[in-house]
Amino acid sequence: MSKFNRIHLVVMDSVGIGAAPDAAEFFNHDANDTQSDTLGHISEHFALNVPNMAKLGLGRIPRDKALVGVEQVATDQLTGYATKLEEVSRGKDTMTGHWEIMGLNIQVPFRVFPEGYPEDLLEKIEAFSGRKIIREANIPYSGTAVIDDFGARQMATGELIIYTSADPVLQIAAHEDIIPLEELYKICEYVRSITLDDPYMIGRIIARPYVGTPGNFTRTPNRHDYALSPFGHTVLDSLNEAGVGVYSVGKINDIFNGVGINHDMGHTASNMAGVDRLIETLKLPDFETGFSFTNLVDFDALFGHRRDVAGYGNAINEFDARLPEIYDAMGDKDLLLITADHGNDPTYVGTDHTREYVPLLAYSKAFTGQGVLKVGHYADISATVAENFGVAATENGQSFLGDLK
Fold this sequence. Notes:
Layout: E1 6-12, E2 27-28, E3 31-32, H1 38-45, H2 51-56, E4 81-86, H3 94-101, H4 119-129, H5 143-157, E5 161-163, E6 169-175, H6 181-194, E7 204-213, E8 216-219, E9 224-227, H7 235-241, E10 246-249, H8 252-255, E11 263-264, H9 271-282, E12 290-296, H10 298-304, H11 309-329, E13 334-339, E14 358-363, E15 371-372, E16 376-377, H12 380-389
Parallel strand pairs: 1-12, 1-13, 4-15, 4-16, 6-7, 10-11, 10-12
Antiparallel strand pairs: 2-3, 4-14, 5-6, 7-8, 7-9, 13-14
Helix pairs in contact: 9-11, 10-11
């Protein structure tokens, strides 16, 4: 019998909590990640107001330096459990982080293209699509800046805007009035088909449609991600094969390419829309047992990569303020786990993710105890989920289910 009827995992995308032991091996431009600390540096430059996460133990997580403004609640006054987790995979991107959280160990990293995509790939895309590609956009670029800089040209010429980022992604931006969605998706599907393996092995191909006029472009909700499937059997597969409900919220379905997910609750337009969708999911009458998996991407996409400290800090405060609503929607034997998939320190050099520990916070109305768990690894989450539902775990991670009293 399951210890918890339902487990709800929320990933605060990129909310790291200090440099990982191997951070010297990962770089942002010319600097390694040893001085990165997403939550720590935000707390030093922005007034965090996170009383709910503090009560779960956020301020008690072992660190060399306390989080500024985050209460270190006395152990006997905590309402949950807390610790931090270390990544073992050779990457610091979204897919690697999420796949490891679900039990994989990715030792061959996805490809990134800091100088842009090679000419031979661009020529294949041009031959298939019948459209030229704007070569000047073929570098790591902000998604909003690239359409500001090249959207007018695309409207005039019908060329494709193809750009990348510090992540292993190839993004194609297209004005919906110039390149219809059906055509954009067809091009992205082709690009996906030719970049599954070396020498490209790109994590995701992303359709980025937009509308508007020069100086007033906006991206639409019609984004579509074409991902690789996980490189091995994850705990999501184990749950699905055992007939356990697996509910995805936000971009989780894209990250896993739908594998192991049997109830996709759809994309969400913002962090707060993601929380709304999670709460709706928790209230579904048919969701009596099972696992929900939510990604809140704004921390990363809107604030981390753009090095917006105030925006990032405000987003953390907004999420914390919604926790009581999530608690209210939970059943008496539900477990909530809050974590992250990597860091993205908005005070750091460059615009890349940062190699960091991530926090782990746990809450349940069924808890009779509380405290700080031992420092673990990302895959410990998958092992815990697997043990709770009595399904096969992977060879990675150790369950902490027995430590939750």
